[in-house]
Specification:
single chain, about 55 residues, mainly alpha, 1 helix, about 60% helix, about 0% strand, rod-shaped
């Protein structure tokens, strides 16, 4: 049989791990949503070679 102190230490460790995974998932979801919002903007117009500045 296992001791009660061993069970409680695993429960605390599991709770901390679960909180860390949940926090990482929430942060990833927020980053994904913010990138999707920026993706709605049209791309800048390409530079035409005729109008390009001369360089050496």
């Amino acid at each position: 049989m296992t001791k009660k102190s061993e069970k409680s230490s695993w429960a605390g460790t599991a709770a901390i791990a679960g909180a860390a995974i949940g926090s990482a998932a929430l942060a990833a979801a927020l980053l994904y949503a913010s990138r999707r919002k920026d993706g709605d903007k049209p791309a800048p117009a390409p530079i035409n070679p005729e109008n390009a500045p001369e360089t050496d």
